[in-house]
Amino acid sequence: MTGPAPRLEVERVSKRFGPTAALDEVGLTVAPGQVHAVVGENGAGKSTLMKILSGAVTPDAGAMRLDGEPYRPRTPLEALARGVAMVYQELSLAPHLTVAENIVLGIEPSRAGFVRRAEGRAAAAAALARLGAREIDLDARAGSLSVAAQQMVELARALARPGVRVLILDEPTSSLAEDDVRRLFATVRALRARGLSMLYISHVLEEVQALADTLTVLRDGRAVWGGAAQSAARDEIVRLMAGRRVDCLFPRSAHTPGEVVLELDGVGGAAKPVSASLALQRGEVVGIGGLVGAGRTELLRAVFGLDPVRRGTIRVAAWPGWAPPRKRLAHGVGLLSEDRKGEGLALAMPLADNATLSRLEGLGPAGFVLPRRQHAAAARWIDRLGIKCRDSRQSVGELSGGNQQKVALARLLHHDVDVFLLDEPTRGIDVGSKAEIYRLIDALALAGKAVLLVTSSLPELLGVCDRVAIMHRGRLGPLRAPEGLTEHALLMEAMGVAGG
Asked: Which of 204, 220, 288, 462 is 20 to 30 A from 489 in CA distance terms?
């Protein structure tokens, strides 16, 4: 007996960008009603492959077939017309339009040049119902929705296209809380049961093995392994992705805390945080966990001066009170934003500018910047952090997510800050890059720097930090040593369940 004919076949697909081989004879097969995961380190070729499948990039060589027919889309619209839709990690809704308008955007029912709004609303409602998301208000502005609800609208928009046969999901859980992840998984399983084929890109191997039927591992533009998702041990998948063993993911040395460099007492913002108190010392890593929306990001932004402080006190070393970012940098405080593309980096500018712009002193005489010195300074951070790039003149937008994150960290290191405010520093990056960032955090603490780390990863919270606290509905709990704490107990505390 033979199984069903493949829904999507990719054979020996290659793509070069100048001297760089982004894909080198990659192949994979996806059956109807199957979830096929694609994993690999940042820069392995996942994004290029998905852009080819969705029509955004044209391959140099190779063949693709969709339900047995040749498939080579030249544009995303052509891919959609053939039944292949993609939901990107960076959500692309029009925030000023309603939910219904976003879902039918580009396929609005019309007659004689007039949009038939009632039919459009009905189509939008049907798409949300297919996802089990009837509670989302069709008339709400998309920009007013939570991230999880916006993602459901993105999915509904993809499924509203007629004849969708293949759905590509790029890091769909990167900004979701635990409950939202479970709901997304239930949605994916329901779509699979209806015969939809899905390609699922994720750095979270626990998700991949819980959800996917089959798996392809990419490394340096080549497919180095493929098979049933459950047939390879997680450690082996990591080795295949990295090309080496990542033996110690969480290197935590014995740190020696020193003087207090950041002290918060009852700090509250315009809405969040409600109340936060802590004392951060030199030579330690303090972690803050909690659900998305608990107020963790708002706390870091308030400390750095991006958000207002309505009550409570902040003291940075000898400087009391709220201060704007320019002064916070002068005080030795640096922030790594959770949104590296939206506000953490200037994507169109070269790596050298991104790494050095906050501190140009010493890069030239009398306030001038000599390009030679600037690029030499950036080259030191490229070497120290292992940033994969052509050189310091390459634009940051061309780098993989993990390397972009390293550039954002390089700016804080170049500025030589004493207090590192790190907001989700490993979100959306591969296992190898995570291990490198964990080693850097450990080295910073050993060098006497202070690190305040916000993370949604409970293993990261327990594995990297010297003390941890949970934020729930804007209120920060007490700091505790991680020894004796469990992921389950921390999750229950984040959800506000007593006795978890």
From this structure: 204
